[in-house]
Amino acid sequence: MNLLDTARKLVATGPVCDPCLGRPFADRSFGLTNEERGKALRVSIALDDDEPYESPDREDCWVCEGHTARFDTYAELVADGLAGVEFATYQVGTRAPPLVEENEKLFREDAGMEADAGETFKSEFNREVGKRVGRLTGTDVDFDRPDILAVLDLERAGEDPSSHAVDVQVNPAFVFGRYRKLERDIPQTDWPCRECGGSGVQLSTDEGEEPCDYCGGSGYLYDDSVESFVAPHVLEAMDGDEAVFHGAGREDVDALMLGTGRPFVVEVKNPRKRDPDAAALEARINEEAGGSVEVEGLRLATHEMVERVKELDASKTYRAEVEFGGEVTEADLDAAVDELHGTTVVQHTPQRVDHRRASLDRERTVYDISAALEDATHATVEIHGEGGLYIKELISGDDGRTEPSLAGLLGVEATVTALDVLKVEGEDEAFDDPDYIRDEE
Protein backbone atom coordinates (compact mmCIF):
# COMPACT_ATOMS: atom_id res chain seq x y z
CA MET A 1 0.00 0.00 0.00
CA ASN A 2 1.47 3.37 -0.97
CA LEU A 3 1.55 6.45 1.24
CA LEU A 4 -1.48 8.10 -0.34
CA ASP A 5 -3.61 4.97 0.03
CA THR A 6 -2.65 4.80 3.71
CA ALA A 7 -3.57 8.46 4.14
CA ARG A 8 -6.97 7.78 2.53
CA LYS A 9 -7.65 5.06 5.08
CA LEU A 10 -6.75 7.45 7.90
CA VAL A 11 -9.04 10.18 6.55
CA ALA A 12 -11.87 7.64 6.21
CA THR A 13 -11.85 6.92 9.97
CA GLY A 14 -13.71 10.18 10.70
CA PRO A 15 -12.97 13.89 11.10
CA VAL A 16 -9.18 14.13 11.49
CA CYS A 17 -7.30 17.43 11.84
CA ASP A 18 -4.20 18.10 9.73
CA PRO A 19 -1.69 17.69 12.62
CA CYS A 20 -3.15 14.28 13.53
CA LEU A 21 -3.16 13.20 9.86
CA GLY A 22 0.48 14.21 9.43
CA ARG A 23 1.76 12.71 12.68
CA PRO A 24 1.82 9.01 11.59
CA PHE A 25 4.11 10.01 8.68
CA ALA A 26 6.52 12.18 10.70
CA ASP A 27 9.38 9.74 10.14
CA ARG A 28 8.93 9.74 6.34
CA SER A 29 9.67 13.39 5.62
CA PHE A 30 11.67 16.14 7.27
CA GLY A 31 11.51 19.91 7.50
CA LEU A 32 7.72 20.05 7.80
CA THR A 33 5.38 20.39 10.73
CA ASN A 34 2.78 17.69 11.16
CA GLU A 35 0.14 20.23 10.21
CA GLU A 36 1.95 20.97 6.93
CA ARG A 37 2.49 17.25 6.34
CA GLY A 38 -1.18 16.46 6.95
CA LYS A 39 -2.38 19.33 4.73
CA ALA A 40 -0.10 18.19 1.90
CA LEU A 41 -1.49 14.66 2.12
CA ARG A 42 -5.07 15.91 2.15
CA VAL A 43 -4.44 18.17 -0.88
CA SER A 44 -2.83 15.25 -2.74
CA ILE A 45 -5.82 13.03 -2.02
CA ALA A 46 -8.23 15.73 -3.23
CA LEU A 47 -6.27 16.23 -6.45
CA ASP A 48 -5.95 12.50 -7.05
CA ASP A 49 -9.66 11.92 -6.49
CA ASP A 50 -10.69 15.13 -8.27
CA GLU A 51 -12.57 16.31 -5.20
CA PRO A 52 -12.55 19.68 -3.39
CA TYR A 53 -9.96 20.08 -0.65
CA GLU A 54 -11.36 20.51 2.84
CA SER A 55 -9.78 20.22 6.31
CA PRO A 56 -12.12 19.61 9.25
CA ASP A 57 -12.10 21.98 12.19
CA ARG A 58 -9.48 20.91 14.72
CA GLU A 59 -12.03 21.01 17.52
CA ASP A 60 -13.95 18.25 15.73
CA CYS A 61 -10.98 15.86 15.44
CA TRP A 62 -11.83 12.50 16.97
CA VAL A 63 -8.16 11.53 17.47
CA CYS A 64 -6.87 14.46 19.56
CA GLU A 65 -10.34 15.60 20.70
CA GLY A 66 -9.53 19.17 19.71
CA HIS A 67 -6.33 19.55 21.72
CA THR A 68 -4.18 20.53 18.71
CA ALA A 69 -6.34 23.67 18.42
CA ARG A 70 -4.99 24.85 21.77
CA PHE A 71 -1.23 25.11 21.22
CA ASP A 72 -1.34 28.90 21.48
CA THR A 73 -3.63 28.85 24.52
CA TYR A 74 -1.32 26.57 26.50
CA ALA A 75 1.77 28.58 25.52
CA GLU A 76 0.10 31.76 26.76
CA LEU A 77 -0.86 30.07 30.02
CA VAL A 78 2.76 28.99 30.55
CA ALA A 79 4.06 32.48 29.80
CA ASP A 80 1.50 34.02 32.16
CA GLY A 81 2.49 31.56 34.88
CA LEU A 82 6.12 32.66 34.56
CA ALA A 83 5.41 36.36 34.96
CA GLY A 84 7.91 37.76 37.45
CA VAL A 85 10.21 34.73 37.19
CA GLU A 86 13.67 35.25 35.71
CA PHE A 87 14.83 32.36 33.51
CA ALA A 88 16.85 31.65 30.39
CA THR A 89 15.89 28.06 29.50
CA TYR A 90 12.74 25.97 29.66
CA GLN A 91 11.23 22.62 28.78
CA VAL A 92 7.61 21.62 28.21
CA GLY A 93 6.17 18.27 29.24
CA THR A 94 2.69 16.91 28.56
CA ARG A 95 0.40 14.46 30.37
CA ALA A 96 -1.79 13.21 27.54
CA PRO A 97 -5.32 11.93 28.23
CA PRO A 98 -5.39 8.10 28.09
CA LEU A 99 -8.31 8.31 25.65
CA VAL A 100 -6.24 10.34 23.18
CA GLU A 101 -3.36 7.87 23.43
CA GLU A 102 -5.81 5.02 22.79
CA ASN A 103 -7.29 6.93 19.83
CA GLU A 104 -3.80 7.27 18.39
CA LYS A 105 -3.32 3.50 18.37
CA LEU A 106 -6.74 2.75 16.90
CA PHE A 107 -6.24 5.46 14.26
CA ARG A 108 -3.09 3.76 12.94
CA GLU A 109 -4.37 0.21 13.31
CA ASP A 110 -7.49 1.02 11.24
CA ALA A 111 -5.19 2.02 8.38
CA GLY A 112 -2.96 -1.05 8.75
CA MET A 113 -0.08 0.91 10.27
CA GLU A 114 2.11 0.07 13.26
CA ALA A 115 0.68 1.45 16.48
CA ASP A 116 3.81 3.54 17.11
CA ALA A 117 4.34 4.77 13.54
CA GLY A 118 5.56 8.34 13.16
CA GLU A 119 5.45 10.68 16.14
CA THR A 120 3.42 10.53 19.32
CA PHE A 121 0.78 13.08 20.24
CA LYS A 122 2.69 13.91 23.43
CA SER A 123 5.90 14.63 21.54
CA GLU A 124 4.16 16.96 19.10
CA PHE A 125 2.34 18.78 21.88
CA ASN A 126 5.60 19.36 23.77
CA ARG A 127 7.32 20.72 20.68
CA GLU A 128 4.52 22.93 19.35
CA VAL A 129 3.69 24.51 22.69
CA GLY A 130 7.41 24.75 23.47
CA LYS A 131 8.15 26.71 20.29
CA ARG A 132 5.44 29.18 21.15
CA VAL A 133 6.67 29.56 24.75
CA GLY A 134 10.12 30.38 23.41
CA ARG A 135 8.75 33.07 21.13
CA LEU A 136 6.58 34.59 23.87
CA THR A 137 9.34 34.69 26.49
CA GLY A 138 12.48 35.15 24.38
CA THR A 139 14.12 32.11 26.01
CA ASP A 140 15.63 28.83 24.77
CA VAL A 141 14.55 25.22 25.17
CA ASP A 142 16.88 22.96 27.18
CA PHE A 143 16.26 19.21 27.29
CA ASP A 144 18.97 18.52 29.87
CA ARG A 145 18.38 20.70 32.93
CA PRO A 146 16.26 23.76 32.15
CA ASP A 147 15.59 26.63 34.52
CA ILE A 148 11.86 26.06 34.10
CA LEU A 149 9.72 22.96 33.50
CA ALA A 150 6.12 23.51 32.43
CA VAL A 151 3.91 20.42 32.68
CA LEU A 152 0.64 20.47 30.73
CA ASP A 153 -2.03 18.19 32.19
CA LEU A 154 -4.49 17.81 29.31
CA GLU A 155 -6.62 15.21 31.07
CA ARG A 156 -7.23 17.52 34.01
CA ALA A 157 -7.92 20.43 31.68
CA GLY A 158 -10.63 18.77 29.64
CA GLU A 159 -11.88 21.46 27.26
CA ASP A 160 -10.78 24.30 29.54
CA PRO A 161 -6.96 24.70 29.62
CA SER A 162 -7.23 27.49 32.17
CA SER A 163 -8.57 25.08 34.83
CA HIS A 164 -5.27 24.51 36.64
CA ALA A 165 -3.94 22.48 33.72
CA VAL A 166 -0.47 24.07 33.68
CA ASP A 167 2.02 23.27 36.44
CA VAL A 168 5.09 25.52 36.24
CA GLN A 169 8.09 24.16 38.14
CA VAL A 170 11.08 26.40 38.78
CA ASN A 171 14.27 24.36 39.10
CA PRO A 172 16.83 25.35 41.75
CA ALA A 173 19.62 27.82 41.03
CA PHE A 174 23.17 27.49 42.36
CA VAL A 175 25.90 29.84 43.54
CA PHE A 176 29.44 28.53 43.98
CA GLY A 177 32.18 30.15 46.04
CA ARG A 178 34.84 29.62 48.70
CA TYR A 179 34.66 30.71 52.32
CA ARG A 180 37.22 31.54 54.96
CA LYS A 181 36.28 31.20 58.61
CA LEU A 182 38.28 33.73 60.62
CA GLU A 183 36.85 33.16 64.09
CA ARG A 184 36.71 29.99 66.14
CA ASP A 185 33.58 28.33 67.51
CA ILE A 186 31.56 28.91 64.36
CA PRO A 187 30.17 25.73 62.74
CA GLN A 188 29.84 25.43 58.99
CA THR A 189 26.07 24.90 59.08
CA ASP A 190 23.32 25.74 61.55
CA TRP A 191 23.59 23.36 64.50
CA PRO A 192 20.20 22.64 66.14
CA CYS A 193 20.25 21.95 69.85
CA ARG A 194 20.25 18.20 70.48
CA GLU A 195 18.42 18.60 73.79
CA CYS A 196 15.31 20.36 72.45
CA GLY A 197 15.59 19.28 68.81
CA GLY A 198 15.86 22.89 67.68
CA SER A 199 12.54 23.96 69.21
CA GLY A 200 14.10 26.10 71.93
CA VAL A 201 11.58 24.65 74.38
CA GLN A 202 12.58 22.62 77.40
CA LEU A 203 9.14 21.83 78.71
CA SER A 204 5.55 22.64 77.82
CA THR A 205 3.02 22.87 80.68
CA ASP A 206 -0.45 24.29 81.22
CA GLU A 207 1.28 27.42 82.48
CA GLY A 208 3.30 27.89 79.28
CA GLU A 209 6.60 26.86 77.73
CA GLU A 210 9.94 26.70 79.52
CA PRO A 211 12.95 27.70 77.36
CA CYS A 212 15.61 25.06 76.85
CA ASP A 213 18.41 25.40 79.42
CA TYR A 214 20.96 23.89 77.07
CA CYS A 215 20.62 26.42 74.23
CA GLY A 216 19.00 29.28 76.15
CA GLY A 217 15.84 29.00 74.09
CA SER A 218 17.48 29.81 70.74
CA GLY A 219 17.13 26.27 69.40
CA TYR A 220 20.77 26.31 68.26
CA LEU A 221 24.04 25.37 69.95
CA TYR A 222 25.85 28.26 68.26
CA ASP A 223 24.52 31.72 67.53
CA ASP A 224 26.27 31.95 64.15
CA SER A 225 27.42 29.63 61.38
CA VAL A 226 29.01 30.00 57.97
CA GLU A 227 25.62 29.05 56.56
CA SER A 228 23.83 31.80 58.51
CA PHE A 229 26.31 34.42 57.28
CA VAL A 230 26.06 33.34 53.63
CA ALA A 231 22.85 31.52 52.67
CA PRO A 232 20.25 34.18 53.66
CA HIS A 233 21.93 36.79 51.45
CA VAL A 234 22.00 34.42 48.46
CA LEU A 235 18.36 33.52 49.10
CA GLU A 236 17.38 37.18 49.18
CA ALA A 237 19.36 38.02 46.04
CA MET A 238 17.64 35.22 44.12
CA ASP A 239 14.21 35.75 45.70
CA GLY A 240 13.74 32.05 46.42
CA ASP A 241 11.80 29.98 48.93
CA GLU A 242 14.66 28.10 50.61
CA ALA A 243 18.47 27.98 50.55
CA VAL A 244 20.53 24.86 51.21
CA PHE A 245 24.24 25.13 52.01
CA HIS A 246 26.58 22.42 50.64
CA GLY A 247 30.22 22.44 51.77
CA ALA A 248 33.18 20.47 50.40
CA GLY A 249 33.77 18.72 53.70
CA ARG A 250 33.89 20.69 56.93
CA GLU A 251 36.41 21.80 59.52
CA ASP A 252 36.02 21.43 63.29
CA VAL A 253 33.92 24.09 64.99
CA ASP A 254 36.99 25.43 66.83
CA ALA A 255 39.22 25.43 63.72
CA LEU A 256 39.86 28.37 61.43
CA MET A 257 39.53 27.99 57.65
CA LEU A 258 42.22 30.13 56.03
CA GLY A 259 44.15 30.35 52.74
CA THR A 260 42.07 30.10 49.58
CA GLY A 261 39.08 28.90 51.59
CA ARG A 262 36.74 25.93 51.39
CA PRO A 263 34.51 25.41 48.33
CA PHE A 264 30.75 25.55 48.83
CA VAL A 265 27.53 25.77 46.84
CA VAL A 266 24.31 27.43 47.95
CA GLU A 267 21.26 25.83 46.33
CA VAL A 268 18.23 28.13 46.08
CA LYS A 269 14.85 26.48 45.60
CA ASN A 270 12.13 28.13 43.51
CA PRO A 271 14.22 31.21 42.65
CA ARG A 272 12.44 34.09 40.93
CA LYS A 273 15.78 35.66 40.02
CA ARG A 274 18.64 33.61 38.56
CA ASP A 275 21.28 36.22 37.72
CA PRO A 276 22.22 38.21 40.81
CA ASP A 277 25.19 40.58 40.76
CA ALA A 278 27.83 38.20 42.13
CA ALA A 279 30.30 40.95 43.03
CA ALA A 280 27.68 42.96 44.92
CA LEU A 281 26.44 39.81 46.67
CA GLU A 282 29.99 38.91 47.73
CA ALA A 283 30.59 42.41 49.08
CA ARG A 284 27.32 42.38 51.04
CA ILE A 285 28.04 39.00 52.64
CA ASN A 286 31.54 40.06 53.69
CA GLU A 287 30.33 43.35 55.10
CA GLU A 288 27.50 41.78 57.12
CA ALA A 289 29.78 38.99 58.44
CA GLY A 290 31.96 41.64 60.08
CA GLY A 291 35.23 39.75 59.71
CA SER A 292 33.97 36.45 61.14
CA VAL A 293 33.57 34.88 57.68
CA GLU A 294 34.71 35.92 54.22
CA VAL A 295 33.63 34.61 50.83
CA GLU A 296 35.29 34.99 47.46
CA GLY A 297 34.89 33.87 43.88
CA LEU A 298 31.08 33.80 43.92
CA ARG A 299 29.64 32.73 40.57
CA LEU A 300 26.61 30.99 39.17
CA ALA A 301 26.98 27.24 38.87
CA THR A 302 25.13 24.18 37.61
CA HIS A 303 23.42 21.38 39.51
CA GLU A 304 26.40 19.12 38.84
CA MET A 305 28.57 21.39 40.98
CA VAL A 306 26.64 20.27 44.08
CA GLU A 307 27.68 16.67 43.52
CA ARG A 308 31.30 17.68 42.93
CA VAL A 309 31.31 19.63 46.17
CA LYS A 310 29.67 16.84 48.18
CA GLU A 311 31.91 14.13 46.72
CA LEU A 312 35.21 16.01 47.06
CA ASP A 313 37.68 14.01 49.15
CA ALA A 314 40.54 16.51 48.91
CA SER A 315 43.70 16.42 50.94
CA LYS A 316 44.19 19.33 53.34
CA THR A 317 47.02 21.26 54.94
CA TYR A 318 46.70 22.13 58.62
CA ARG A 319 48.56 24.16 61.21
CA ALA A 320 48.23 22.95 64.79
CA GLU A 321 49.38 24.64 67.98
CA VAL A 322 50.38 21.79 70.30
CA GLU A 323 50.95 21.62 74.05
CA PHE A 324 52.92 18.70 75.52
CA GLY A 325 52.35 17.13 78.92
CA GLY A 326 56.11 17.01 79.53
CA GLU A 327 59.30 18.51 78.17
CA VAL A 328 60.25 17.60 74.59
CA THR A 329 63.62 18.09 72.93
CA GLU A 330 64.08 19.31 69.41
CA ALA A 331 65.84 16.08 68.48
CA ASP A 332 62.99 13.94 69.80
CA LEU A 333 60.40 16.08 67.97
CA ASP A 334 62.34 15.86 64.70
CA ALA A 335 62.62 12.07 65.05
CA ALA A 336 58.88 11.70 65.69
CA VAL A 337 58.03 13.93 62.73
CA ASP A 338 60.36 11.91 60.47
CA GLU A 339 58.57 8.75 61.59
CA LEU A 340 55.15 10.19 60.69
CA HIS A 341 56.22 11.68 57.34
CA GLY A 342 54.65 9.66 54.51
CA THR A 343 53.24 7.00 56.81
CA THR A 344 49.75 5.50 56.80
CA VAL A 345 48.04 5.69 60.17
CA VAL A 346 45.13 3.63 61.41
CA GLN A 347 42.46 5.65 63.15
CA HIS A 348 39.54 4.14 65.00
CA THR A 349 36.56 6.50 65.08
CA PRO A 350 37.59 9.27 67.52
CA GLN A 351 35.90 9.42 70.90
CA ARG A 352 34.73 12.98 70.27
CA VAL A 353 32.63 11.95 67.23
CA ASP A 354 31.87 8.35 68.15
CA HIS A 355 28.25 9.23 68.99
CA ARG A 356 27.52 10.32 65.39
CA ARG A 357 29.94 8.31 63.24
CA ALA A 358 30.19 4.59 62.47
CA SER A 359 32.64 2.84 64.78
CA LEU A 360 35.37 1.47 62.51
CA ASP A 361 39.05 1.66 61.60
CA ARG A 362 40.17 4.02 58.81
CA GLU A 363 43.55 4.18 57.12
CA ARG A 364 44.78 7.65 56.15
CA THR A 365 48.14 8.86 54.86
CA VAL A 366 50.26 11.68 56.26
CA TYR A 367 51.73 13.13 53.05
CA ASP A 368 53.96 15.68 54.74
CA ILE A 369 54.58 16.97 58.25
CA SER A 370 56.92 19.49 59.85
CA ALA A 371 57.23 20.93 63.36
CA ALA A 372 58.93 23.84 65.11
CA LEU A 373 59.48 23.75 68.86
CA GLU A 374 58.42 27.01 70.55
CA ASP A 375 59.67 25.95 73.99
CA ALA A 376 60.06 22.66 75.80
CA THR A 377 56.29 22.10 76.04
CA HIS A 378 54.89 23.90 72.98
CA ALA A 379 55.26 23.42 69.23
CA THR A 380 53.69 24.44 65.93
CA VAL A 381 53.01 21.49 63.61
CA GLU A 382 52.05 21.69 59.92
CA ILE A 383 50.47 18.62 58.33
CA HIS A 384 49.42 17.81 54.78
CA GLY A 385 47.13 14.83 55.11
CA GLU A 386 44.77 12.68 53.09
CA GLY A 387 41.10 13.66 53.16
CA GLY A 388 39.43 12.30 56.28
CA LEU A 389 42.60 12.29 58.41
CA TYR A 390 41.74 13.28 61.99
CA ILE A 391 44.44 15.80 62.90
CA LYS A 392 43.73 16.21 66.61
CA GLU A 393 43.90 12.45 67.07
CA LEU A 394 47.07 12.19 64.97
CA ILE A 395 48.63 14.51 67.56
CA SER A 396 47.09 13.12 70.76
CA GLY A 397 46.76 9.43 69.89
CA ASP A 398 43.19 9.47 71.28
CA ASP A 399 44.02 6.95 74.04
CA GLY A 400 45.56 4.56 71.53
CA ARG A 401 42.77 4.77 68.95
CA THR A 402 45.19 6.34 66.42
CA GLU A 403 48.44 4.51 65.65
CA PRO A 404 51.07 5.85 65.22
CA SER A 405 50.61 9.31 66.73
CA LEU A 406 52.87 12.20 67.72
CA ALA A 407 52.10 11.67 71.41
CA GLY A 408 52.80 7.96 71.16
CA LEU A 409 56.12 8.46 69.42
CA LEU A 410 57.24 11.12 71.92
CA GLY A 411 55.99 9.25 74.97
CA VAL A 412 54.24 12.33 76.38
CA GLU A 413 50.72 13.68 76.21
CA ALA A 414 50.12 16.06 73.29
CA THR A 415 47.05 18.25 72.89
CA VAL A 416 46.01 20.52 70.02
CA THR A 417 45.21 23.92 71.52
CA ALA A 418 44.45 25.64 68.21
CA LEU A 419 43.87 24.24 64.72
CA ASP A 420 43.78 26.07 61.39
CA VAL A 421 43.01 24.68 57.94
CA LEU A 422 45.50 26.38 55.61
CA LYS A 423 44.45 24.86 52.31
CA VAL A 424 42.00 22.44 50.73
CA GLU A 425 44.27 20.87 48.15
CA GLY A 426 43.15 20.18 44.58
CA GLU A 427 39.94 22.23 44.62
CA ASP A 428 41.06 24.25 41.58
CA GLU A 429 41.11 21.13 39.43
CA ALA A 430 37.77 20.00 40.81
CA PHE A 431 35.82 23.23 40.49
CA ASP A 432 37.27 25.36 37.73
CA ASP A 433 35.89 23.12 34.98
CA PRO A 434 33.70 25.38 32.77
CA ASP A 435 31.17 22.57 32.33
CA TYR A 436 30.04 23.16 35.91
CA ILE A 437 29.85 26.95 35.74
CA ARG A 438 26.69 28.68 34.50
CA ASP A 439 27.26 30.51 31.23
CA GLU A 440 26.20 34.07 31.97
CA GLU A 441 26.32 35.33 28.38
Terminal CA distance reads: 52 Å
User: What is the ordering of alpha helices and beta strands?
Assistant: HHHHEHHEEHEEEEHEEHEHEHEEEHEHEH
Structural class: alpha+beta
Largest sheet: 10 strands, mixed
Overall 3D form = elongated
**Helical residues, percent:** 25-40%
Alpha plus pi helix count: 14
Chain-averaged pLDDT: 90
Number of E-type strands: 16
Give the strand content: 25-35%
Rg result: 33 Å
Poorly predicted regions are none
How many separate structural domains?
3
Structure write-up:
- 31% of the residues lie in helices and 27% in strands.
- The protein has 441 residues and is α+β, with helices and mostly antiparallel strands.
- The strands form 3 sheets. Strands 5, 8, 9, 10, 11, 12, 13, 14, 15 and 16 form a 10-stranded mixed β-sheet that branches. A 4-stranded mixed β-sheet has the order 2-1-3-4.
- Helix 1 (3-11) crosses helix 3 and helix 8 (226-238) runs antiparallel to helix 9 (278-289).
